[in-house]
Amino acid sequence: MNRLEQxxxxxFGARLRTGAxxxxxxxxxxxxxxxxxLTAEREDELRAALAAAWRERVPAFCLGAGTNLLVSDRGVRxxxxxxxxxFTHLEFEDVRVRAGAAxxxxxxxxxxxxxxxxxxxxGEGIPGSVGGGLVMNAGAFGGEIARVVxxxxxxxxxxxxxxxxxxxxxxxxxxxxxxxxxxxxxVDFELEHGDREELRARAAALRAKRAARQPRGLPxxxxxxxxxxxxxxxxxxxxxxxxGARLGAAAFSTEHANFIVNLGGARAEDVRALxxxxxxxxxxxxxxxxxxxxxxxxxx
Length: 300
Ligand SMILES: Cc1cc2nc3c(=O)[nH]c(=O)nc-3n(C[C@H](O)[C@H](O)[C@H](O)COP(=O)(O)OP(=O)(O)OC[C@H]3O[C@@H](n4cnc5c(N)ncnc54)[C@H](O)[C@@H]3O)c2cc1C
What we know:
Layout: H1 2-12, E1 17-21, E2 33-40, H2 43-55, E3 60-62, E4 69-71, E5 76-83, E6 90-93, E7 96-100, H3 105-114, E8 117-118, H4 130-135, E9 139-140, E10 143-144, E11 149-155, E12 161-165, E13 170-172, E14 175-177, E15 183-190, E16 192-193, H5 196-213, H6 233-239, E17 246-247, E18 250-252, E19 260-262, H7 268-286, E20 295-297
């Protein structure tokens, strides 16, 4: 690790941060430090950092906007890499869009709607980045990102640039299979022409639905569990009496049982214990094994 740190320090200087707290980089506002945190501004920087980590056998993790993560209280060992402003472009050409992986997914959705391009308006209100959205196969209200992806550009764990076509990728519910530790740098989408006013109206309707259903004002990471086939995690949790259940400063939201909220200073351990409690109670009560949607990362 020290050798990697020295090598990266020589190239990136003060841009390399050691022991950087990750809580502030997540929507949950929970989590310990990264051994080493680097924001790559260009693809050559990203490639060099990943190649160096590979050579030194140090694990590398790509952090997006941190809206689907539970980072452990002990933090993340190895290199945590984020993508900077060099990866936030959105380029439109007829129905095609080239989106930098660090662009906000919401900005892409808004711009597409304003240009009268449909197929991605389901994403209105989904926070996070384009790269994170691709990894999670983000979706809502019957739509998902998988349906509009043409090409995914990125860098593999050895630091080599690669492009994978949408057809080559295996998408499933809130999951995309990618090569190990693949860091996405850009996603190319193919949308369809639509009526701008209709698209605006659809996006506004989805925004209103979301506002009525989701807890506001307290840090969270979106849905904690995936919906099991034919059912809703929120309903199962509510039936199991978990709405409002609290451990330390973490609690299942009183507004929507499938959200855990940070009431202020919550620990990752408490969130994890609530997740496990809910899994065992729901299994006992309805026989359903709930699978976490939020990704738990770091050293537990
Ligand atoms: C209030 C709220 C509402 C939400 N509503 C929805 C919803 O309706 N539908 C939905 O699907 N999700 C929803 N989410 C969850 C979350 O917003 C999505 O999963 C989002 O796509 C995650 O993107 P991110 O950039 O924050 O990724 P992160 O949380 O940072 O990371 C998620 C995963 O993606 C990986 N990753 C991120 N960027 C890259 C990259 N460039 N290359 C390689 N790997 C990368 C990370 O390593 C990690 O494994 C919601 C979250 C919140 C807080």
